[in-house]
Structure formats: structure tokens, C-alpha cells
Amino acid sequence: MPSGDVYQPAINRGWWVIRVNGIYIALFFLWTQFHWGGEQYQTLIGNLGYMPVHVFWIAMWWRTAMHPALSRRARWGWRVLTAGALCNFIASCMTWSYVELVLQQQPFPSSTDSNDIDFDWLIPSTLVLFIVCPLLIYGFTLLTEALKSHAELFKFFLDTGIVLVGLGTPVWYFLVRPIVEIHSNASEIALLLQYPATTLVLLFAVLVVLLKRSGPRDNSPLQWLALGILVDCTADVIFNCLIQENAYQTGDPIDALYLAGGLLLMTGAQW
Fold first, then answer.
1. Rounded Cα–Cα distance for residues 138 and 22 (Å)
2. CA distance 156 to 81
3. What are the distances in angstroms from CA 166 to CA 160, 169, 171, 203?
């Protein structure tokens, strides 16, 4: 049997995983609208329902990391990304659920209209900013070509800086400015800024993908990854606006947008 006939079912299995997850996310979004099972179980169902897509996301990235056709550098890039996805699962799913369901505390910062801040949300946000984001950036760097000269390095950081200034302006206006204006305590401001800081770091990760070349390989996987991160950044901005207005609860529609970003990231591994 030709090798192509042997490998084709593996590709089909990957696309089936993506299709099933797409249907699951659509059903999850409908649940966020109607909250079948009762409002009293919204937090429980929202936490549990958020996990399966992340598990498949990790599995798909690890599957690609083990693909023998990829270069050693690319395989290591996918392994680092898989480690980042696993840490994100621990932070966004396991730790978040533990804080909310077991400790019975709010796993995200209180409204900025209040100076009485509960820091039980600090662990998940810290894991994402200081562990997940660096792993994603390093993984994306390995998936793209290494910069071979000081001139290329200077041009990359110059282009990145210009774009980040433009993209960072709305992040400052809508997310950072309200925090700085309302809170006077420097330590509180530093902790509350972790969420918008995460958004900016993720935007930098997107620029790593878009501004660096992937070499002779097909750019489609990187484009899917960049799109997935952009969707996550959009969800982050909306989420930050909601928590500033004290208008978010686990199981709200914004959770489905995060899962849609995960689906796009999963697709990048399959493509």
C-alpha cells in the first residue's frame, strides 16, 4: 500500500477532531445563551464545559510535535507550544475551577469601581502572564526562521515596536487607564495590570509569527496560530471590559469566544 494511503487516515482523524470540537463550541455557545440545567449550576457547568477543547488542543499540538516530517527545530517549537498549552490548561481550567468551585472565591479581579480587591484570582493570571506567554513566544520563535544578522534583528524589533504602539493605544485607553485612574496603591495597580499586560504580550507573540518568516515551509499553520491568538486577544479585551463593569460570570458567552480561539490554534497544528 502506498505511504500516502497509510498516512491519509491520520490526517482525517485530525480534521474529525476539529469538526467535533467546532460542533461542541457551537453547542457551548448556545448553552451560554440559555443555560440549560438551571442558573444555579451555571458556574459548575461553565467550568467543566470549558475543559474538553483545551484537552484536545494539547493533544493536537503534541501530535504535531511528534511528526517525523518536521525539522528538529520545528518539532521543538511545537513541543514548547504544547508545554505552554498544558500550562494554560492548568491556569485557565484547573486552577480557575479550584479557586471558584473549591475555595468559593472569585478567580478574576473585582470591579475597578471598588478599592476592596480580593487577590484570590492572582494565581491563574500570574501563571498565564509569566509562564504561558513566554512559552508561546519561544515556541513561535522556533517555528519561524532565526534572524541571521543584526540588521534583521533591528528591523524586526523596529517593526514590532511600531505595530505594538498602534495596537497598544486602545489597550491603554480601555483597559489600563481605568485601573490607573481609580486605584492609587502602586501594588494594587501592578497586580491589576496583569490582565492587559497579558493581552500586549500575546499581541507580541502574533507579531513574532507575522513579521518573521517560516522559511521554505507552508505558512498556513502560522497564519492559523496568529488568527487564534488574535481571537484570544479580542476575548481578553472584552473580558477586561466586562470585569471592569462587574458584568462577567463564568459561563457567559465570552467563554465561547475563548474556545473559538482554541479551535483556531488547534487547526494550526492540523494544517
1. 28
2. 22
3. 10, 6, 10, 11
Q: What pLDDT, in 10s, does the model give residues 187-230?
A: 667 777 888 889 999 999 998 888 886 655 667 889 999 999 99
Q: What is d(CA 14, CA 213) in angstroms, rounded to the nearest whole number?
A: 26
- What does the mean pLDDT of the chain come to? 86
Cβ count within 10 A of residue 266: 28
DSSP letter at 177? H
pLDDT at 241 exceeding the cut of 90: no
d(CA 73, CA 145): 9
Distance CA 143, CA 103 (A): 39
Please state whether 219 falls in left (phi above 0), alpha (psi between -120 and 50) or beta.
alpha
Model pLDDT, residue 86: 97
Q: Indicate the pTM of the whole model.
A: 0.88
Q: What is the C-alpha to C-alpha distance for residues 224 and 53, in angstroms, rounded to an integer?
A: 16
Q: Quote the crossing angle between the two packed helices 42-49 and 3-34, to the nearest 10°.
A: 170
CA distance linking residue 59 with residue 31, whole number of Å: 25
C-alpha cell at 109: 479581579
pLDDT at 167: 83
Rg (CA), the chain: 20
User: Hey, where are the domains in the chain?
Assistant: 3-270
pLDDT digits (tens, 9 = 90+) for 114-145: 455 556 667 788 889 899 999 999 999 999 88
The answer for residues whose C-beta is within 8 angstroms of residue 270's C-beta and 6 or more apart is 11, 14, 15, 17, 18, 60, 64
